[in-house]
Amino acid sequence: MQGYEPHTAAAQFAHPPRSGSTTVARVTTPAPRRQGRRSAADAQQTKALLLSVADRLFAERGFAQTSIRDLATAAGVTSGAIYGHFRDKADLLAEVIHQRITSELESEAIGAASDHVQTLTRQATRYKRRRRLRALLVQGAAAAQTDAETKAGLRAEQQRHIDQWIAGYQRERARLGIDPSVDIEAALLYTWAVELGLGMLESVGIEPRRATGWADVHNRMARSLRLPPE
Q: What pTM, to 2 d.p., does this model score?
């Protein structure tokens, strides 16, 4: 039983009984456990479980087709536990997408040892690894067409990443050799639109035949950012 600790005989009976006397048990009350740290750890574990289950069900069944009850059943928790971590289903979807973008794209962000050409080419070569991310984005985009809360949540999530990417490229523009006339925001929206567009094509069974060909096109586009306007 949670919170229960067995006592030793010495703790229960501090002194042996005298002859003719009544045995009096001296029971020591256990000190209360510190629940704060454990409760926080349990909460994080539950949140991680919910994100994992939502990631799978949203991509496989569809965002609109998956209810809060479905998520609770699959995770083995109550619906109340979900609302204890997320405002609604749209909030959960936004967090799932955020985690995948962070781990699958931003973990390979441009650093001092690489440039945008290498980064974009490498990410294009590995496009198959991001199939689920694109599936989630397509599900979210479809739901956002008719649901204002989903639209607002995904817009805020996407804008957060886009703003971060723009700031990074602006900061590194000189080192990367990007021509001063290039509109960084337009370039980033273009490359991100290609990623999202691939997700739409994949949903109907169309995708690049060769990863090398897909990567080559991204390489050419990335190198073109260094060219002056005609």
A: 0.78
